Amino acid sequence: MKREIRCPLEDLKKERLWYAIVTRDRQGKVVSRERRKSHSFLKQWNQLVYVQMKQAALSIKDTTEVPRNVNDKTENFAMNATAGATAFGIRVGTGNTPVDIEDFALETPIAQGVGAGQMEHLVCTVPTSVVAPPSCYFVVSRSIVNNSGGVITVREAAIYMRIDTSWYACGIRDVLVAPQAVPNGGAITIDWTIGVTV
Amino acid sequence: MKKEKKPTQVQLTDKKVEEALSYTVEVRDKKGQVLQRISAPSRSYVEQWNQLINIQAKQSAAAGLIDTGGIVRSISPDLRTFGINALAGNILKGIRVGKGFTAVAIDDYALETPLGEGVGVDEFNHQAMTHTPPAVVGTTCSFPIKRILLNNSGATISDIREISCYIGGQNMYFLGFRDVLPGAVAVPDGGSITVTYTIAATV
User: Fold this and answer.
1) What residues of chain A lie within 8 A of the CB of B79, using their CB?
2) What is the pTM of this model?
3) Which of B72, B134, B137, B186 lies at a CB distance of 3.0 to 4.6 Å from B158, suitable for a disulfide?
4) HSE-up of residue A138 (Cα within 13 Å, Cβ side)
5) Total domain count for chain B?
6) Which residues from chain B sit within 8 angstroms of residue A54, using beta carbons?
7) Which 169-198 residues of chain B touch chain A by CB within 8 A?
8) Quick check: is B142 in a domain?
């Protein structure tokens, strides 16, 4: 049975941050959907905004919990990960602890690969912002394929972003309302919308 | 034939997600006494803010951003993007005020009627921007940005109705957020107006 948890799209369009998740089986048939407001921007996101606004360095925890001296850099906020890259871009995990402002990573991230509990990460796409008054938004999107040989249940999702030139921080994390069981040969696709509305 | 069950639509009632913005405006006389204080949620980030985040996130250039002079620009990812660290007298970036009162629109690209730098009629001496590092209190991480504007024009500057923050984008400048105040503000000669924006993320 297909399961759907969806906030009305018109309500979500007023939000600054929301996501849509679609889980498909190996034939591409949708087995589950979830669409809702996102919880939430984390401390690292706000710290990186500060670094860029002040144009000065600040200590920010990376995704391994190591404090890094992050400077204003061209690479800050990058999410455009290539296929197979899991240092940044959208990631998923199996943890279900509620989001805390101090979260610095997924609780239990799913690694890249085809081994047990691993998934194959496709490219993380970031199309150009769209202006649709009274909003302006863009969608960060990534499909993650399960070729592990077994079912993998996804319970959390995040956006890892580049900080400074060679480190990565968790900017956004959410625990899913309904765990998404991704069958072997299937995939989970996450579309994260980052917007502003007057 | 097996009948498919219609998917249910669930309206979630989670607390509102915020990467919130709010402001405080404080007017003082020449002795430093507070004459007026306004605090309110901000409306709002405008399109250039989102477009610049987008350029950084995708790490490639985008065209069609309108700078504070009304000129359409193509912008690449850059270390100067979002910079507001204006020194005293610099009004290219940082907090600005004006006399316009047209409601904020997503495609605003500047203050409607910005007030300039100087000691002439309707001019302010803009002090340096100040920034306080982000702090976590409970479920919120926030930081304030602040600017004091001194009125040395020789007369009261009245009918101030709008506030904003201009931000960097490469070597150009863009409107990041703008607000129309609920009422007009007047700053006496020798007095000041202090605008503080607080940028917050709450889970």
Assistant:
1) 55, 71-74, 76
2) 0.92
3) B186
4) 21
5) 1
6) 83-85, 131
7) none
8) yes
